[in-house]
Amino acid sequence: MAAKVETKIKSSAYRSSRLSVAPMMDWTDRHCRYLHRLLSAQTLLYTEMVTAPALVRGGALHLLKHNPQEHPVALQLGGSDPDELAKAARLGAEAGYDEINLNCGCPSDRVQSGTFGAVLMREPTRVADCVRAMQEAVDVEVTVKCRIGVDEQEPHAVLPAFLEQISAAGCQRVTIHARKAWLQGLSPKENRDIPPLDYALVHRMKAAFPALHISINGGITSLAQAQEQLEAGLDGVMIGRAAYHQPTDILAAADAQIFGTGRIVDPTEVVQEMLPYVEAHLTEGGRLHQITRHMLGLFAGRPGARHWRRILSEGAVRDQAGPEVILQALDAIMSMPQVEQAV
Question: How crowded is residue 228: how many other Cβ atoms within 10 Å of its Cβ?
């Protein structure tokens, strides 16, 4: 067992978890992840949450599709049955994912009805059983993403007990969204903003569990803020919406600033590098907007950003739309006087 754990610790996912992009439903699909990988070679990427029942009972193996260039990339699973999660984890590992992550943080009604996501904060023993079963099924590392608590729970009491159980079960890496989830009374969208952040509690958990690799998530919108969290003693930082809406701001300098390697990437180069990927997708029968919707924020805050978004938004949804739409949008960026302020 020790040798197996040591192998996991040295994985590419473990090394890259110093900075990661959060799993986000309807956002971090394979096209999004391919784009993000062009911006950063090091940052750990996550899939959208895939439910274990969909894979095991529904046979939805297409949900595991990804491009080899996405690595290191982690599969996030939703579920609460240890046997089913073990089978789903095995399918994910066989598909080539570098890490299997268990979702204990999503607050949506659909997730609650399936007895997984944030509601699992109430059942740490069940989570520990799931972690054990998944670890026994795969050689890649099994991790957990959680909240600091739900509803009336007291995070300062609940979170350490939760971490104690999952670490005893063999989980060595956890990402903590530093907010409670209110399962009654708040929508999933409100749960991303309204419950107050408690970064101090996450830092206390690192002090209490020094051997546990802890990443923090929630409210972090810049590399400078990420660096502050790392310098304060945390092992990793996970960024969500900011990495999606302003991918260049977060990811283009991540390798140089967070990992100390590589260079700051020019987003115009990334656009050119996306073109062969786009061509391949269209050849397979895909639609242009399925990819370009993830590219809208590439030039956020830069001259011409509004024109870039408009050309892509209007042109990519048209029948037979192809790479020429992207090139037209790029021309608008390249020809924009640098003194103009983007909006």
Answer: 14
Paired residues of 328 in beta bridges: none
Cis peptide before 124 (omega within 30 of 0): no
**222: closest CA among 202, 197, 203, 240?**
240
Give, in degrees to the nearest 5, the angle at Cα 45 between 79 and 61: 50
Cβ-based neighbour number of residue 210 at 10 Å: 8
Tens digit of each residue's pLDDT (9 = 90 or more) over 11-57 = 789 999 999 999 999 999 999 999 999 999 999 999 999 999 999 99
Rounded CA gap, 12 and 71, in Å? 8
Residues with a catalytic annotation lie at 106
> In this structure, what are the phi and psi dihedrals at residue 103, rounded to the nearest 5 degrees?
-80, 115
Q: Kindly give the pairing relationship between strand 44-51 and strand 19-21.
A: parallel
Distance CA(162)–CA(158), nearest Å, equals 6
Average pLDDT of the residues in 133-142:
97
Nearest-angstrom CA–CA distance, 175 and 206: 11
**pTM score, whole prediction:** 0.93
- Residue 282 in contact with residue 325, Cβ under 8 Å? no
Query: Domains plus CATH for the chain?
Result: 2-257 (3.20.20.70), 267-334 (1.20.120.1460)
- Amino acid occupying residue 7: T
Contact predicate 40/249, CB 8 Å = no
**DSSP structural state of residue 22:** P
